[in-house]
Amino acid sequence: MKHYLAILIFLASCSVSRDSFSQGLHTSSSRAVKLYTEGMNHYDYNEISKAEAFFKEALSIDSSFYEVHMILGELYTKTRNYSEAAKSYSAAVNIDSTSYRPVFFSLANAEMMIGDYANALIHYKTYLKSKGGSEKNRKIALKNLTNCEFAVEAVKNPVSFNPVNIGSNINTADDEYWPSITADGQTLMFTRQVYSDYYPSGMASSQEDFYVSFLNDTGWGQAVNAGEPLNTRSNEGAQTLSSNGNYMFFTACERSGGLGSCDIYFSAFKNGKWSVPYNLGWPVNTPAWESTPSISADGTMLFFTSSRQGGKGGKDLWYSIIRNGKWSNPVNPGNNINTDGDEMSPFIHFDGKTLYFASDGLPGMGGFDIFMTRMKEDSTWSEPRNLGYPINTASDETGLVIDANGQKAYFSSKRDNKNGKDIFYFSLDESVRPDPVAYLKGKVTDKETGKLLKADYELINLSSNKVQVKSTTDENGNFLVCLPSGYNYGINVTKSGYLFYSENFMFEGIHSVMEPMVKRINLSPARVGEKMLLSNVFYEVDSWELKPESVEELDNLAELILYNKDIVVEIGGYTDSTGTDQHNLVLSEKRALSVVKYLIGKGISGDRLQHKGYGNTSPIGDNVTIEGRKLNRRTEVKVVARSQ
């Protein structure tokens, strides 16, 4: 198109007769041509307003001046005034639909940007039926044809949930985007584009900062700048908060020591302030572009966007897992999620398996749409689902996050040209909600003194035999975790110099972050006479064969004995009263021996291990109810001596 316009400009500048001139342009008015030429001079120097004025004046003289309608279409496209662009291109087509067939591509693009999908569909088809046009544009037209077909049906069948502007305490005339929310739903952090009058003169005209708002009785409070050291004179944004709000990952660009143009950084909130951020480094960050991180509720899995080599398109989603304090080589989740377009702004919900993200490569309403996918049992991902209209529109929708209850979602979109990007919220339909989650709160103390203890803990989903959470309490022995509801869990708590604590429980019902299930955990010093219960050691029915889900607890026991090199322990087996006393005595002894054999296999000397079967002689529950008998079927560890 630009080459075509250049030829027209050349013709307009030649000294030719009025008749021959009018053969090159769609007008016979020399005055209109003069105004058009003057407008082009301003347009070439990017003086958009002046150029527009001359073009409009030319049309006031000759409304059928084809070339002016064409250049106004380009001007309005350049300034993102797609509504006027569509009108200008449409006017040009009505005057002459054959001179420049690629105009249908430009017209269809403008119509798609304003959500006029039905007409865009017609004009993409017209363009594709025409000869000529670049291969690149024909490929775009084919892709957008699919988008328009999807969008036409989506508008006919809108989803039942509608976005609502979050309000003026957060949204301004500037751009607000990338919301993130703590698990308790009380703190909202987001990114705002701020301008140079906020900073000393001489800085860039605009850049990004973090802002924070807190929920009160009347709604979200007035947002305030998060301040140093998070905010600097450079760009930072696209943050993800931990479920308890105690740490965050975020994107910062062009910082000293960075690996690429934009890298992912970490900061912790302690003693009322954020720590100086540090760069996560390799292999999360590379010389490419890394951004929009999202951390799982257990803090072990980091999703992010990267333009690194090895992806499926321009920008892909990747994830990395932390092991022993180090991030693993990032994994690309594959073709079910990533396309030859761009994917970005992942959000992994607190359930640990429902992922929301934005893509312009999957069929949608145009630009970036928000999709949902779930991780399957084999760690592959389900087919992404478009959240539908009016959540997704012809504008870019990105940065969706969902509260811990899985019912309210926040995201950013530009729905009013006067206000730029804003943050919206909506009630999530059940069909696209994540799995229910609930909260468990723990406090760890010394059994004898009541002293608060900083300790390591882990929670295991006994149904899948997977470690769901593995972390460390705060300095006051507290931890708060978010877990999928409706499963049996085993909990292990360990600290140097103490016997570990273990328990298994059914995590049912709704436990909010404000009213979590509470576990008070007492640790006993590792000294002679102290006992601990191996709650997560299981055997096959009426057998001494250990079940696979016992491995995690037995490995913890082995580690404890290996660390405390001078202790001698007794493994005691106990049964309920079902069966004869002799049968129970033999069964309990063989079960205790199974544990001893496992520990020897882990490198522990047999001299430090004793075993004894107690049968049903020492019940701790009744032998009438199911729960009572379950309590009596147990394995205990007792420190019986210190080796010489």
Keyphrases for this structure?
644 residues; alpha+beta; Serine Threonine Protein Phosphatase 5, Tetratricopeptide repeat; Neuraminidase; 4 domains; five-stranded antiparallel sheet
Distance between the termini: 91 Å
Query: In DSSP terms, counting alpha (H) and pi (I) runs of 4 or more, how many helices?
Result: 12
CATH architecture of the largest domain: 6 Propeller
Biggest beta sheet attributes: 5 strands, antiparallel
Average predicted local confidence, pLDDT: 89
CATH superfamily of the largest domain: TolB, C-terminal domain
Contiguous uncertain segments of 5+ residues: 1-23, 197-204
Tell me the Rg in angstroms: 33 Å
- Percent of residues in helices comes to 25-40%
Based on secondary structure, the structural category is: alpha+beta
Strand content: 25-35%
CATH class group of the largest domain: Mainly Beta
> Would you give the CATH topology of the largest domain?
Neuraminidase
Total domain modules: 4
Shape, per Cα inertia axes: elongated
Query: How many β-strands, per DSSP?
Result: 33
Describe the structure.
- With 644 residues, the protein is α+β, with helices and mostly antiparallel strands.
- The chain has 4 domains: 2-156, Tetratricopeptide repeat domain (Serine Threonine Protein Phosphatase 5, Tetratricopeptide repeat, Alpha Horseshoe), CATH 1.25.40; 164-432, Neuraminidase (6 Propeller); 436-525, Immunoglobulin-like; 527-644, 2-Layer Sandwich (60s Ribosomal Protein L30, Chain: A).
- It has 12 helices and 33 strands.
- Strands 2, 3, 4, 5 and 6 form a 5-stranded antiparallel β-sheet that branches. Strands 7, 8, 9, 10 and 11 form a 5-stranded antiparallel β-sheet that branches.
- A hairpin with an 8-residue loop joins strand 8 and strand 9.
- Helix 3 (30-44) packs antiparallel against helix 4 and helix 5 (66-78) crosses helix 7 (103-113).
- The longest helix has 22 residues, at 135-156.
- Mean pLDDT is 89; it is low at 1-23 and 197-204.
